[in-house]
Amino acid sequence: MKQYNQIKAKYPDALLLFRVGDFYETFGSDAIKASKILGIIQTKRGAGSSSEIELAGFPHHSLNTYLPKLVKAGCRVAICDQLEDPKMTKTIVKRGVTELVTPGVALNDDVLEQKKNNYLAAVHPGKKNWGVSFLDISTGDFLTSEGSVDHIDQLLQKFNPSEVLISKPKKNYFTEHFGTQQAAFYMEDWVFQKEFCTELLTQHFQTKTLKGFGVDGLEAGTITAGVILHYLSETQHKQLQHIHAIQAISSEDYVGIDRFTARNLELLYPNSREGVSLIDVIDFTSTAMGGRMLRQWVSFPLKSIKKIQERHQAIKGFMNQEQVREEAVLRLKNIGDIERLMSKIATQKVAPRELIQLKNSLVELIPLKKHLSDSTDSKLQNLGFGLHNCDELIETLTSTLKEEAPVSTTKGDFIADGFSEELDELRNLRKSGKDHLDKMVEQETERTGISSLKIAFNNVFGYYIEVRNTHKDKVPEEWIRKQTLVNAERYITEELKEYESKILGAQDRIQSLELGFYAELINKIQNTLGVLKQNAIQIATIDCLVGFTLLAQKQNYNCPKLTEGNSLDIKEGRHPVIENQLAVGEKYITNNVSLNREEQQVIMITGPNMSGKSALLRQTALIVILAQMGSFVPADEVNMGIVDKIFTRVGASDNISLGESTFMVEMNESAAILNNITDSSLVLLDEIGRGTSTYDGISIAWAIAEYLHQHPAKPKTLFATHYHELNEMTQTFERIKNFNVSVKELKDSVLFLRKLTPGGSAHSFGIHVAKMAGMPKTVLATAERKLKFLEKSHQEEDRKEALKNSTQDMQLSFINLDDPLLEALREEIKNLDIDTLTPVEALMKLNDIKRRLKG
């Protein structure tokens, strides 16, 4: 216990699995926690004494069963093993922590999800920008970036790390900017030093500088990358040969998608338990590597027309070359997770059977490479040329390992026959030993007349002869009795012990030779990790492109046309997720959407609840994202300029648990949009202002729509609203156009046609929707009476006119100095805070005054 307490003191924040004989034991608070998570029995050591302590444990061979459960529960687990053979010491066995497994640092297949990366992140505020780095130790992917709080927030949302490393003094600063959603681990401040971190990185990559990786100018990013390497060292992960590069993430290369938009569009995760995300319906990949790469493509749509079109052309190539496509699908299905096998090879935790899987995967690459390289399509040829033949590695694995290799080296018998003469001789000796035993049984049976005599083996006293009690009187005197059972007795002989010594000696030598050859094999494979990584990336790319081809064929997607302008023209567009969920035989109602900065910049969409306004907004964004990922799209035709940022304010997203109301969240999200728009942005707004009173809501919605129209960037905007008053904006603002999602009124109900048509809608049909939801008839009748009363008592036209006049203020007369509007304007200018006014806002204010003066 003294030894345990010393080791536990070094890892106070980890659950310590302490190896005692054949068990991993936990003590004290660790035992209480482990028993609850694992469902194992909690007892006490030294019960009733002053040293009484809680105890819970499990057999050491069950580690791979219990460890994933602890890590998935968010525990940091320190694995403390015996560092010497108990037989070789008379004192307490030396023990030490051989590995610290945390949520962000895991190599166990049962902890990891096949098609998802498991990232460890580090975040740190630099002098100018925040720095962030991400590492998946199971694949070797290492990325870094730096930028504004919004940029870091977007990356944390996209990579969704399992664990984030932060400096202890920056704890409150981090939570203030990024909340408490991240599983954070706080480290000492001295680790976050530029010189220390740069040295760690250059030592690891064996370079003098980081210029070759394109990250040398990222000071805060370099610090976070170095912190990750230091953390791996601290957690006893020092064999990291598979991490041989670090890559910079540039916001210039990818579409900006903030956390609200990623959540609203349900790109990777549905917002409800029964929901379906975009990745769920577009993932036709065959390999785990392809599945992980697809998630990256969804998170980071491209902005380079050239790169996007290369993907589109590859899909066309696979469509036109049916035989090549079918061959690719066939081969990809048989390829294992080479990336994660690499990490196991680097850390020397790879099993013989996994190396056979690696060999078989590399064998599948040979025909795949040939079919692609021999294709008549240049894009497919390039994909084939990017694959490397690993003939030498295949030959090494084939000659060294048996095809039916076991899952663990402890089971033995995994080195191939013919690989070593000495090993073959020892195996023959072991094999002939069985024949020798059979002969011995035959001889002794004949000599003694004991018909039921048998020879067996156990770990307690080795080989023995067992005789049933009915033949006990026939046992020769020279046999030595070792054990008495209920119905039999066990004996040993001098000849049997000589044989045992010979056979066990051979078995020990076989085990020693096999482990030695296996270690040499792993060292040899480690030299090929660079080539294996390149193959893994190329396989994942091919898998994604083949998957896009299968998706396009199955769902009837078409290739979008990319242009240099800023317009967006979608013909007969469909929602990829909703379409996929329709009942058999039900057809999705398509829609056209056309947006540009010259004539139709803002589309104001009115229509009742359930008519499909929100779906139309989402499908427009998803079509753009799919197009810029390099996929075909669910539409008959799409012509579009590159979109650099997508902003959405779609649906309610209360943060009540954080003390924020629906309306506060809505305003936060809307402010983030208005402060970051560009001329290539796509803005999708749904029901702005509904979280407050009607007149407040109308005023805010009007003001936001006006701001977007008047902004110099002229961002393309879809604005869905209940407020029919906003239809009046078209009379004042030339680039705002009214559309409605059409409905057909029947006698007692309403039929949603879900078709976007020009013109505004004057009704909400809220009572019809309530009726469809099964609202009691008395409630519906009361609602209808109230509606008729309100319609009579409120002069709708007066209200619309008032709103219109609030923008088209009367002409300001400079002759009539008593003009109240002039007074109001003077007060407005006096109260302007020049220090906080941005140049864009100043221009817009000036433009507003000019328009009002024109009358």
Please characterize this protein's 3D structure:
The strands form 5 sheets. The chain has a 7-stranded mixed beta sheet with strand order 13-23-24-25-21-26-27, with helices on both faces. The protein folds into 6 domains: 2-101, DNA repair protein MutS, domain I (MutS, DNA mismatch repair protein, domain I, 3-Layer(aba) Sandwich), CATH 3.40.1170; 120-251, MutS, connector domain (Nucleotidyltransferase, domain 5, 2-Layer Sandwich), CATH 3.30.420.110; 303-390 and 528-555, Orthogonal Bundle (MutS, DNA mismatch repair protein, Chain A, domain 3); 421-518, Orthogonal Bundle (MutS, DNA mismatch repair protein, Chain A, domain 3), CATH 1.10.1420.10; 561-804, P-loop containing nucleotide triphosphate hydrolases (Rossmann fold), CATH 3.40.50.300; 820-854, no CATH class. It contains 28 helices and 27 strands. The model is unreliable at 652-659 and 808-817 (pLDDT under 50). With 855 residues, it is of the alpha/beta class.
